[in-house]
Design goal:
Elements (H helix, E strand, L loop, with lengths): L12 H10 L3 E3 H12 L3 H4 L10 H15 L3 E3 L4 E4 L1 H5 L2 H5 L1 H12 L15 H15 L3 H14 L2 E6 L10 E7 L2 E10 L4 E2 L1 H11 L5 E6 L2 E2 L1 H7 L7 E4 L1 H11 L22
Helix pairs in contact: 1-2, 10-11
Length: 282
């Protein structure tokens, strides 16, 4: 497959700022990626090229480094929930300014490079650690037996408020891996779900097959994967006139497991700062 149209990370800096401006200044990773792809007009065959063994695509990987560089110079920032926002200084940047950022970041590293007897520390707040834990978690999930992964999906749904969650197991009903009931106040909805341990991309065809198994039985569907969904799959999931199917890709699955604390332990480090000025004039 030709990858000569694969955008370089430094080419994604300006489109990233533009994308954030079109989303009123903030966006999640899931919102930001398609906006950047749209602005840069990245062909679909390039969008689906995996980075190594996955689960990220090469475009996602390079967008990570674009965000990293923008964050290093204070043009964007992110919350604990992974929502990116553009800063006032980021809004003030021009396209020529943005082209200088990679050199500025390299200079930062050159100045902060440790001496031979020092260890290099991971820069605080750059999400480098978050990137690696997700990759590690996806590798663990992909190594699970199919029935164990289905039981994990069952546990996730129960922890998220579903009741009467049933896993079909080997007797899968036309591509339906399980059924659950989601109760919202006085209403309840039957939801069919499918869960696949993919390393690559889920195609639009897989979404159509899943919907075909749902027709006439429920209007709610949920597709969970350790991989990712192609652009066509996302369009098919929300196609007009067809029952919508909610999609959870590998990155979202990691965040859900982290939030639910299922196999993921997140520790908060207390930081204490003495504010000397507060003692003046006492």
């Amino acid at each position: 497959m030709r990858t000569d149209k694969m955008p370089k990370y430094n080419e994604m800096l300006w489109p990233t700022l533009q994308a954030l401006k079109t989303t009123d200044g903030s966006a999640s990773n899931q919102e930001l990626l398609p906006k950047v792809i749209q602005i840069m007009e990245v062909p679909e065959e390039i969008q689906n090229v995996p980075h190594g063994a996955g689960p990220r695509t090469e475009v996602e990987y390079r967008l990570f480094w674009a965000r990293y560089n923008l964050r290093k110079v204070g043009a964007i920032e992110s919350s604990e929930r992974g929502v990116w926002s553009i800063t006032p200084s980021g809004r003030a940047l021009t396209e020529p300014d943005v082209k200088k950022i990679p050199a500025q970041v390299r200079e930062m590293f050159r100045k902060n490079r440790p001496k031979p007897d020092q260890d290099q520390e991971v820069p605080e707040g750059d999400n480098v650690v978050d990137e690696s834990w997700q990759d590690q978690l996806i590798s663990v999930l992909q190594a699970m037996p199919p029935d164990a992964f289905e039981r994990l999906a069952q546990r996730i749904l129960r922890e998220s408020g579903f009741v009467k969650v049933e896993v079909k197991g080997k007797s899968g009903d036309g591509g339906i891996d399980g059924i659950g009931v989601l109760r919202v106040n006085l209403l309840s909805f039957q939801v069919f779900f499918q869960c696949k341990r993919y390393k690559g991309s889920v195609s639009a065809g897989a979404i159509r097959d899943f919907r075909g198994a749902m027709v006439g039985r429920t209007d709610k569907g949920l597709f969970i994967t350790t991989g990712r969904f192609t652009a066509d799959a996302k369009k098919e999931a929300t196609r007009d006139g067809a029952p919508p199917i909610d999609l959870i890709d590998g990155e979202q699955l990691c965040e859900i497991l982290k939030t639910l604390r299922l196999g993921v332990k997140a520790e908060m480090v207390e930081q204490v700062t003495v504010e000397s000025d507060a003692f003046k004039g006492i």
